Amino acid sequence: MSSQRRTITDEEIRELISKLQTLLPESRRRGANRASASKLLKETCSYIRSLHREVADLSDRLSDIMETMEGDNPQVEIIRSLLN
């Protein structure tokens, strides 16, 4: 079986880079000034790492809060059901 891959055009790459730029807070602050694709990808990686750290921190905080609450507390059960 041969697998054929579709070639992505330069225009499609520019469109994807433009969409990515609209998702990044730093790029939105910069406004119309366009960053290079390389800089934009570095910002994307940095932003994703910061989101991972934020999720880990919030998860730790939620775990700490749930440990201090009583096991039969209805709020704890609601939180557990939402997390599952």
Question: Topology, please?
Answer:
Blueprint: H1 10-23, H2 25-30, H3 37-68, H4 74-83
Notes on the protein architecture:
With 84 residues, the chain is mostly helical. It has one domain (10-83). Helix content is 74%, strand content 0%. The protein has helices spanning 10-23, 25-30, 37-68, 74-83. It starts with 9 loop residues before the first helix and ends with a helix. The relative contact order is 0.07.
The total count of helices amounts to 4
* Strand/helix succession: HHHH
Quote the beta fraction.
under 5%
Largest sheet: none
Number of domains: 1
Structural class estimated from helices and strands:
mainly alpha
Protein name: Transcription factor ILI3
Keywords: Growth regulation, Transcription, Transcription regulation
InterPro entries: bHLH_dom (IPR011598), HLH_DNA-bd_sf (IPR036638), PRE (IPR044293)
Family: Belongs to the bHLH protein family.
Q: What are the defining features of this structure?
A:
single chain; 84 residues; mainly alpha; PRE; Transcription factor ILI3; protein dimerization activity; transcription; transcription regulation
